[in-house]
Amino acid sequence: MTDSADQLAIAIRQIVKESVDAALRAQVQPRISPSEPTKSIDDSTGRLLYSFKEIQSKLNIGRSTLYQLLDDGQLPSVRIGRRRLVTAAAVTEYVKGLA
After folding, report:
1. Which InterPro entries does the UniProt entry name for this protein (predicted)?
2. Reduced to 3 DSSP states, what percent helix, strand and coil does the chain have, rounded to the nearest 5?
3. Where are the domains of the chain?
4. How far apart are CA 51 and CA 16, in angstroms?
């Protein structure tokens, strides 16, 4: 390789590295407040995430009602891999809002 080709390769590597670093910094990081503990819908288990079937059972609602709550934004969900799950805190907030 010539000097100019080496310099070009170094410059390209630097640009790619800076772009990747910027993209990683721009990702949204979840923020958990240490002063506010996460509440569970079932304090005995201490679990933080529940499947849709578990939420249906705990809230005693049907599948259509659950999906309507999710679509309306009344009950937020999170995606982990291919699964959608509901946080215990989201269910607790939803139930508090019913009263």
Report:
1. HTH_17, SinI_DNA-bd
2. 55, 10, 35
3. 49-98
4. 39
What is the Cα–Cα distance from 93 to 57, expressed in whole angstroms?
Answer: 17
Tokens for 61? 């609602």
Bridge partners of residue 85, in order along the sequence: 78
Q: Which of 29, 63, 68, 30 is nearest to 55 (CA)?
A: 63
User: Nearest-5° angle of CA 90, CA 93, CA 98?
Assistant: 130
Q: What is the pLDDT of residues 6-56, one digit of tens each?
A: 888 888 888 888 887 777 777 655 555 555 555 555 556 678 899 999 999
Residues pairing with 79 in the sheet: 84
Residues 6+ apart with CB under 8 A from 59: 66, 91, 95
Contact 49, 91 (CB under 8 A): no
